[in-house]
Structures are given as C-alpha cells and as structure tokens.
Amino acid sequence: MAIALSELVGYVAASLTTAALIPQALLIWRTRRAEGVSIGMYIVFSTGVALWIAYGLSARAWPVVVANVVTLGFSLWILAMKLRFERATRHGAKPMQ
Amino acid sequence: MAIALSELVGYVAASLTTAALIPQALLIWRTRRAEGVSIGMYIVFSTGVALWIAYGLSARAWPVVVANVVTLGFSLWILAMKLRFERATRHGAKPMQ
C-alpha cells in the first residue's frame, strides 16, 4: 500500500507539532519554572485541540484524533504545571536554577 | 452554501490553535522575558507547521495553508524574541518586571 508523499508529509507534520510540546513540558518539569509561559496560550490551544478531536471524530479522520489526543495531554500537563508552580512561587517556594 | 457542522468545527479549531500563539508572543514582547519558554519547542513546532503548509499546498487544502502560514509567522516571532531577549539577559540587560 504505497502511501502518497503528501500524506506522508501530513503524518510527519502532525508528529512534529505534537512532539513539539514535549521539550516545553520537560523544561517546566525540570526547572519548576514557567513564568515566561502564557496561561492564555495553553487555554486557547487546549480548546482548539479539543475541537480538532471533535472534528476528527466527526470526519472519522483517526490520525487527526490520535495526534490531537496526545497533544491535548501535553497541553493540559503544561497548563497544570504552570498553575501549580506559579502558586508555589507566589508562596515563597524557590524555583530550581 | 450550508457549511457542514464538522467543517465549521474544523475552521474554529484551526483558528484557535493559530490564535493561541498570540498571548504567548505578546507576553514575551511585553515583559522582554522568555526564560521559561523552550527553544526546542518552537524549532520543532515551526518545522512541523512548515510541513503542514507543504501538505496543504500539495493537497490544495487552502485553509490548512492559510492557518499554518499565520501560525508559522507567530512561531518564528516567538523564537526570534526568545533568542534576542535571552542574549540581552546574558549581557546584563534588566528584563521588565
């Protein structure tokens, strides 16, 4: 089953835009810091990704569903860490340098 | 021309995941700070978005092209600011509180 080149480009694009959140999540996890990270971004981004999942389900586009479920997981993880470490920093906890 | 509900969901999803980068770009622009922002994320993300543009061109999916050209613009802006303000901070410039 030869996969069309453009379809392959689509799969690689989906993998990269999903995987891109990993370095950001690990940076926050490692340094316990997220001051420069925008809460607004991850609220809007998570909402958009949730809608991509709804779109994928309705269009039976399973790669769109799978890629965006993984992306939503990372996006919500980043949001949760941002809220948690921001509260900790406000209550005097020292972020790791 | 009635637009299918699922197509509408797709357009809203694309707009949100594109617009999501705006609060992050403005936060960095306003505070001149980007310590918590991951360079790795925006390099991988920009590469993925560029591939989405190539996919959209090859599949003649113009909404995919338009949304991702805008996204690429914001992603590269964030990357450029990250590199610029990081260098400035290393050379003793005071970030805005």
Quick tags:
homodimer, 97 residues, mainly alpha, Monooxygenase, 4 helices, transmembrane (chains A, B), SemiSWEET (chains A, B), SemiSWEET transporter (chains A, B), PQ-loop_rpt (chains A, B), membrane (chains A, B)
Structure description:
Two copies of one chain form a homodimer. By secondary structure, the first copy, chain A, is mainly α. Chain A has a domain at 37-88: Up-down Bundle (Monooxygenase). In chain A, 77% of the residues lie in helices and 0% in strands. Chain A has four helices and no strands. Chain A has helices at residues 5-19, 21-31, 39-58, 62-90. In chain A, α3 (39-58) runs antiparallel to α4 (62-90). Chain A is elongated. Chain A starts with a helix and ends in a 7-residue tail after the last helix. The A-B interface holds A 5-6, 9-10, 12-24, 26-28, 31, 33-42, 44-45, 47-49, 51-52, 54-55, 58-59 and B 5-6, 9-10, 12-24, 26-28, 31, 33-42, 44-45, 47-49, 51-52, 54-55, 58-59. Chains A, B: It is found in: Membrane. Chains A, B: Keywords: Membrane, Transmembrane, Transmembrane helix. Chains A, B: InterPro entries: PQ-loop_rpt, SemiSWEET.
Strand content of chain A: under 5%
- Structural class determined from secondary elements of chain A: mainly alpha
> H/E series of chain A, N to C?
HHHH
The biggest sheet of chain A, with number of strands, parallel, antiparallel or mixed sense and barrel status, is: none
Largest inter-chain contact set: A-B, 42 and 42 residues
Number of strands of chain A: 0
Query: What's the total helix number of chain A?
Result: 4
> Quaternary arrangement of the chains shown?
homodimer
Instruction: Please bin the fraction of helical residues of chain A.
Output: over 70%
Any idea of the CATH topology of the domain at 37-88 in chain A? Monooxygenase
Span between termini of chain A: 51 Å
> What best-fitting shape of chain A do the alpha-carbon axes yield?
elongated
| Named CATH architecture of the domain at 37-88 in chain A | Up-down Bundle
Keywords (chains A, B): Membrane, Transmembrane, Transmembrane helix
Membrane topology (chains A, B): Multi-pass membrane protein
InterPro entries (chains A, B): PQ-loop_rpt, SemiSWEET
Transmembrane segments (chains A, B): 12-29, 36-55, 61-80
